[in-house]
Design goal:
Belongs to the TRAFAC class myosin-kinesin ATPase superfamily. Kinesin family. By secondary structure, this protein is of the alpha+beta class. It has one domain: Kinesin. The chain is 26% helix and 28% strand.
Length: 102
């Protein structure tokens, strides 16, 4: 799924560029594990969830990257380290929810 999204996002960036509009993609990737948020692009540092003045949730301390291609975005995701543990059915099973924000 990440590959399909990455290809589509950067195809649209290219289309906009052909029409003279510059778009920049920013990516943040974090996991929610046992009720806490951890930055998957910055050594699993803890990220705080805070509410801003408009009552919207913000992730304070989340590291943002600016990939310029689908390949760069997928490389970022490959370097991330999700929390995994063995289960009765799998030797390596993800134990968290991962969220990619673009």
């Amino acid at each position: 799924l990440y590959s399909l999204v990455a290809d589509e996002v950067f195809a649209r960036v290219a289309e906009a560029g052909a029409k003279g509009t510059l778009l920049v993609v920013r990516a943040g990737f974090f996991e929610i594990y046992r009720g806490k948020c951890f930055d998957l692009l910055n050594k699993k540092k803890r990220v705080e969830v805070m509410e801003d003045e408009r009552n919207q949730q913000q992730l304070v301390g989340l590291h943002w990257c600016t990939p310029t291609s689908a390949e760069q975005l997928l490389e970022l995701l490959d370097r991330s380290e999700r929390t995994t543990k063995a289960t009765a059915q799998n030797a390596h099973s993800s134990r968290s929810h991962a969220i990619l924000q673009l």
